[in-house]
Structure formats: structure tokens, C-alpha cells
Amino acid sequence: MLHPLTTQLVGSYTKPEWLIKHNEIYRLGGRAWRIEPDVLESAQGDVARLSIYDQERAGMDLLTDGEPWRSAWDRHFISKLGGLDTARLANIVVPPSEIGTVTFKKKGEWSREDDDGLPRVVGPIEWLGPMTVKELEFAKRHTNRPLKTQIVGPFTMVDRLADEYYRDEFEIAMAVAAALNKELLALEEAGAAVLHIDDPVMHSRFSRSKRLGIAPIEQMIEGLTKPTTVHVCYGYAYSKESKAPSSTYPELLELLASCRSLTAMSIEYEQPGHKPDLLRHCGDKHVVLGLLDLGTTNIETPEHIASRIRQALEVIPPDRLHPSSDCGMWHLPREVAFGKIQSLVKGTDIVRRELGLPTSWPMTG
User: Fold this and answer.
1) What torsion, rounded to 10 degrees, do the Cα atoms 343, 25, 188, 258 define?
2) Could you give all domains of the chain from N- to C-terminal order, each with its CATH number?
3) Is it the case that residue 113 has pLDDT exceeding 70?
4) φ, ψ for residue 63 (rounded to 5)?
5) Nearest to 142 by CA among 215, 49, 271, 79
6) Cα(305)–Cα(146) distance, rounded to whole angstroms?
7) Chain center to CA of 221
8) What three-state secondary structure class fits 266?
9) Rounded to an integer, what distance in angstroms lies between the CA atom of residue 340 and that of residue 291?
């Protein structure tokens, strides 16, 4: 379900601070939640309803549940796969990002669970059953618009684990991809319109991505019939002071473009200040284009959005271009997040009218 200029979120919608401690989202074991366990699911459901309501009110085409069930998108899956020990952590931390054009905020303004160690791989990584199908089914009960589901990718998962079983980065990546493929197949069966994979570590650890190649992504999307998207970016705006275009991002997009069975690539575009020339590296793939800078509470104007879309259309035709947010709106106040997605839709509608396209699409997956 990718019509020309399909508007959508990438990653989460706002997660209010009464629900979760923003600076502790990476904590394992649910330590980031502010709500008592016996009422947490009810509170998360309320936030999902508000996320869906805001997207509908703004006029978004392809909806998500806003990810309120997840403290951090990667930890959500680590805690549910077989073969992992999340109780006795390995005394190692994730290496620093290889992206030299990003400036991190000062330590103390944000934190990572990695400082406490990493979950250990102690046996074959296995899919034990649906991990996020329940979330999709909840969203389906609260909207008749098509839904996109978002799950972690294999490169990011490998980065968040201490491998004491496979002891080979390609083998563990393929094992993770095979397990997550079963989750995507279950989500497709449950009615997802688009299947989205978040894999920022493909960029932040590009030296590994070059070594492993595209095989883990191909393994993860094998057998799927719905459109599939892989998102690669510079990391959450919440922890980054600034971003600038990296020299490896174009090469990464070319790697994704070589994956024949992949439908689309989702790229961070606005905060790093990328220009349309970047899009020449996307091959014949659909491009989900991040046009909302989540590093600021300033709300983009519809005219700015329209201008950026027009520039991108010089490279990518409208049937393969899809305006979106940059990733991870969870830390923004709701009124800011809503203002941004509303501008995204209004700016897209300006261009749609210029092209003679409808300003809304059928509400079916």
C-alpha cells in the first residue's frame, strides 16, 4: 500500500513523560516505565489511541500505533527471542558510532543501558512466537486506515548482543534475520499493509555492513508479499546535538538498492541537511523521505515541506516518493509532534494538487 506521496511516520510518535522516563529508555527489564505494572498496559493502550487519533486528525495516509508498548524499539525484541540471557549481562558496551559527522549531547542528558552490559547469546536464536502481532491487532481495532508495522533489523540486533554462542558475526546476523523473518510473516498474516525494518546500525557501523553485505536483509524479508522498507539513519535526535551528511550514507543507500526483493528504503534527510543528489544513490527503490527535523521543537511550515518534496521529485518520481518524519518522535511534546505531522500532510497536499493527484487515498490496506 504505497500510493504516490504516501505520508507516514518513521519510528515512534510522542511518548508522554508521565508514561516513560525519556533518559532511560534503553533500560532492560522495564525500568524506564513510570506506570505501575498492573496498569501499565492500560496506560500504553491510551497512548496508542492518542497516537492513532492524532495521525488520523492530521490526515496521514499510512498509520502506526506510535510504539507506546516499547521502551526502546530494539530492547522490545531482545526481551522476547529465545537463546538470549537478559539476566546475566556481559560486561561489555556497544562500541561508539562510526559516523564522524554527528555530535552527541553531554553524558548525563541521556543514558544507555549498554553501560550496564549486554544481553548474552547463549544458544540458538529462536522466534518463540508473535512479539508484536498483539500491537497490530490493537491498532486495527482503532482505525480503518492501513497500518505499517515496525520491527528491529538484524544489524542493530547484533550490535546489542554479546555473542557467546555463534562467535561469527555473519552467522549470528543470519540467525537473527531468520527469527525476525518469522515475526514479519506473522505480521503480514495479521494484516499489516507495509512491513518496516528499523536498522540504524547499518549506518553507524558501516564497516560491518560492508563485510556482511545485504544477505541478512534478504533473509529477513524472504517470502513476504507486502511492501517492505528498511530504515537507516544517523540515530535519535534526542541524543544528538547536531548531524551533518556522512560520506558513507550514499554507499549504504547503494547497498540497500542492490537488494532486489526490498520495496523501499527509508532515509533520514531533514536534520542532516541532505540535498536531492543523495537520492541518486537509491536506484529504483521507493524512497520514504524524512522531512521533519526532530532535533528541534520548531514546527516546519507546509511551504517548506512542499519545497523539499519538489526538489526530491527532480530525482525520484512521485509514485516512488513518500514524505515522512525523520525517526523517533517519542521525546517531543504532543502538541509539537502533532504540529509537525500536520505540516507534513499539508505540505504534501500542496504538491499533490500541483501534480493533479488526490489529496487522500482509499482507507484500505
Assistant:
1) 80
2) 22-355 (3.20.20.210)
3) no
4) -100, 160
5) 49
6) 23
7) 16
8) strand
9) 10
Show the cell assigned to 300. Answer: 516546519
| Helix extents (H) in the chain | 37-58, 73-78, 133-142, 154-159, 169-189, 201-204, 206-212, 215-220, 249-257, 302-312, 334-355
Per-position DSSP letters for 153-182, written without gaps between them: -HHHHHHT-EESSS--HHHHHHHHHHHHHH
pTM listed for this prediction: 0.95
Reported confidence tier of residue 218, pLDDT bands at 50, 70, 90: very high
C-alpha span between 304 and 354 (Å, rounded):
15
Residue 187 Cα distances to 136, 209, 263, angstroms: 8, 26, 17
Predicted pLDDT at 148: 97
Q: 123 near 83, Cβ under 8 Å?
A: yes
Sign of torsion, CA 216 325 23 241?
Answer: positive
